[in-house]
Design brief:
430 residues, 2 domains, 4-stranded mixed sheet, UDP-N-acetylglucosamine 1-carboxyvinyltransferase, 32% helix, UDP-n-acetylglucosamine1-carboxyvinyl-transferase, Chain, UDP-N-acetylglucosamine 1-carboxyvinyltransferase activity, RNA3'P_cycl/enolpyr_Trfase_a/b, cytoplasm, alpha/beta
Length: 430
């Protein structure tokens, strides 16, 4: 099994280039099959989740052609199968976006019930409520969601909770429904705006994405487009916290600073210096980090996908910090792994109480999910000695060339799969 091996203690320094937003790309790839014309998508991150979704799209008959590592051509005119099998869904939860896309285009879709990262229950009741409001009959049978409609008709849909997945899925289905759909209490994340902009570039009529009321006038058909995906705010934030935890000085390039405001604000609170430029952000951590409190909230609040990274960073800050997780109930699994590295973190309910320590020590740890895995790497970079992070298959779901980018910033890290490679790394860094 592949793992990362890290010798900690080096402040990160230099520049890092951020890739396309994974979460935007997943919605955009699903939406790309809603036209029979060829769509070209650029700035695609080369990560496992994206590659699995492309396989799922190919599996139903769409033509997928890789132009290069970060660009793809998709043509959905030959789709013959409206059934997304469990083998894709269990690898990547966002395959369920094909439900909204196929339902919108063909008035029918069958998708296995989702899997994905094990960070708590992520019910899809709001997705199904939205499809039903548009006139689809939705049943769950033999482990699949089966949605079908004679025709989809616009409606007024109020989401009971703010949910990114349901907002995107309903938006896609409504794009080709008859009449007008209004989604109230919609999620406002940057990747929702990106999916809406992509659909609009194909001829959809969507207004209000990025606010809590989205208005969609259905159109009969969508056409070809070329589109470039926004930068990944979570990848950017991860490198920002890595700079903070290691006492580094890093310029994070190819970002939209506005999308990073919640992250930047917390970094300044704990004593980092932040400089914003047009499409980059510099993070400097010259002093001992200070404690703070943080609560995850839907955008523009502090992102749940940055919660493990800030918790690990606050574990090295002076004083007591509290991190409250209000989105997912199962997102502190990595705390037991952090205890092996000397962290003083106690979980009570949906809050972690963190008593800062002066240093972590290297240990063998295991990534329980995507973002927690990245946070354990950050801890290893800041730790004294050698850290081995196992189960990095989770990390590779959402970070492209993670170890390569960290190496360019001066980190001593390698991806290894044998005892021999581990020994070689240890000899090299000792």
């Amino acid at each position: 099994m592949e793992q990362y091996i890290i010798k900690g203690g080096n402040p990160l320094s230099g520049e890092v280039e951020i890739g396309g937003a994974k979460n935007a790309a997943l919605g955009i790839l699903a939406a790309s099959i809603m036209t029979d014309e060829t769509v070209i998508i650029d700035n695609l991150p080369d990560v496992r989740d994206i590659n699995v979704l492309l396989q799922a799209i190919e599996g139903i008959g769409a033509k997928v052609e890789r132009i290069n590592q970060h660009s793809v051509k998709i043509n959905g005119s030959q789709i013959g199968d409206l059934n997304i099998e469990y083998e894709y869904i269990k690898k990547i939860r966002a395959s369920y976006y094909l439900l909204g896309a196929l339902l919108g285009k063909y008035n029918r879709a069958e998708v296995a019930l989702p899997g994905g990262c094990n960070i708590g229950s992520r019910p899809i009741d709001q997705h199904l409520k939205g499809f039903r409001a548009l006139g689809a009959q939705v049943d769950i049978e033999h482990g699949k969601i089966v949605a079908e409609a004679k025709k989809l008709v616009g409606n007024h849909i109020y989401l009971d909770v703010v949910t990114v997945g349901a907002t995107i899925n309903i938006m896609m289905a409504a794009a080709m429904a008859e009449g007008t759909t209004i989604i109230e209490n919609a999620a406002k994340e940057p990747h929702i705006v990106d999916v809406a902009n992509f659909l609009n570039s194909m001829g959809a009529n969507i207004k209000g994405a990025g606010t809590d009321i989205i208005r969609i006038k259905g159109v009969e058909k969508l056409h070809k487009t070329e589109y470039s995906i926004i930068p990944d705010q979570i990848e950017a934030g991860t490198f920002m916290f890595a700079a903070a935890a290691t006492g580094g000085n890093v310029v994070v390039k190819n970002v939209i600073p506005k999308h990073l405001e919640a992250t930047s604000a917390k970094l300044m609170e704990i004593g980092c210096e932040i400089e914003e430029f047009d499409d980059s952000v510099r993070v400097k951590a010259p002093l001992k980090l200070q404690h703070t409190h943080v609560k995850t909230l839907p955008y523009p609040g502090f992102p749940t996908d940055m919660q493990p990274q800030i918790t690990v960073t606050l574990g090295l800050a002076e004083g007591i910090s509290i991190v409250t997780e209000s989105i997912f109930e199962n997102r502190f699994k990595y705390v037991d792994e952090m205890a092996r590295m000397g962290a003083q973190i106690k979980v009570e309910g949906n809050s972690a109480i963190i008593d800062g320590v002066s240093q972590y020590t290297g240990a063998k740890v295991s990534a329980p999910d995507l973002r927690a895995g990245a946070a354990l790497v950050i801890a290893g970079l800041a730790a004294d000695g050698i850290t081995e992070v196992e189960d990095i298959v989770y990390i590779e779901r959402g970070y492209e060339d993670f170890e390569g980018k960290l190496k360019k910033l001066g980190a001593q890290i390698a991806k290894v799969s044998t005892e021999k490679e581990i020994t070689k790394f240890k000899l090299k860094v000792s």
